[in-house]
Amino acid sequence: SGLVVVDLQAPGPPSPVRALSPDGKEWNNGRPYSITLTPPADISGIAGAFFKTGAPAVSNDEPGVQFLPGASSFTATFPALVNGTNLAYVWLKDGAGNADPSNPSAFTLRFDDLPPGSTASAPAFANSTPIAVQFASTDQESLSGVDKTHLWFRRDAGGNGVFSNWQLSSTVPAVGSAGAFLFDPMGFNPTA
């Protein structure tokens, strides 16, 4: 008559495991992570994955463990990450319900929610435009680095020391952590 498959063995650990931000970068600032992995062959198929950060799990239902259905691609949010690298663990559940938290794969979540800092300098007075605005940007903890620097400005349009609100310039952001913007205060058209 029919074939009965008995599967009492939990799937082995997946490899490799990769966690990226939604825009495909290794560093993330708190948005969900996009996790991809290659599951091992399992006679009853892969039903999903368990995830835990910090320390390996002892059981599938202990605090801090989350289960996500799927086989090789997951979107997960991890609470309580610290800035820097965080160790995480993943183990699989097969279609028969077998899962073994003592057989995980470890992977790294790179988290950085600290904004970079920057300094800028320009001449106090100028008799021609554009004005060169020198800048330097730094990553506070030297974690993910500086991706782009934007130029913001305020105007004392009346010459009375009362400045406007900060405005983002229309320039294309500068790539890197140091350089100069050429700013035209009359036309509000700075260029990197």
Task: Furnish the topology, listing elements before pairings.
Elements: E1 17-20, E2 27-28, E3 33-37, E4 46-53, E5 66-69, E6 73-76, E7 84-94, E8 105-111, E9 117-121, E10 131-138, E11 148-149, E12 152-153, E13 167-168, E14 174-175, E15 178-183
Parallel strand pairs: 2-8
Antiparallel strand pairs: 1-3, 3-6, 4-5, 4-7, 7-8, 9-10, 10-15, 11-14, 12-13
Which key features would you list for this structure?
five-stranded mixed beta sheet; three-stranded antiparallel beta sheet; rod-shaped; mainly beta; 192 residues
What amount of the residues lies in strands? 35-45%
Distance between the termini: 75 Å
Strand order of the largest sheet: 2-8-7-4-5
**Alpha-beta classification:** mainly beta
Rg, nearest Å? 26 Å
Q: Sheet with the most strands?
A: 5 strands, mixed
Number of strands: 15
Give the rounded overall mean pLDDT. 89
- Helical content stands at under 10%
Secondary-structure element string? EEEEEEEEEEEEEEE
Shape summary: rod-shaped
Structure commentary:
With 192 residues, the protein is mainly β. It is built from no helices and 15 strands. The protein is rod-shaped and about 95 Å long. It starts with 16 loop residues before the first strand and ends in a 9-residue tail after the last strand.
Short description, anyone?
This protein has 192 residues and is mainly β.
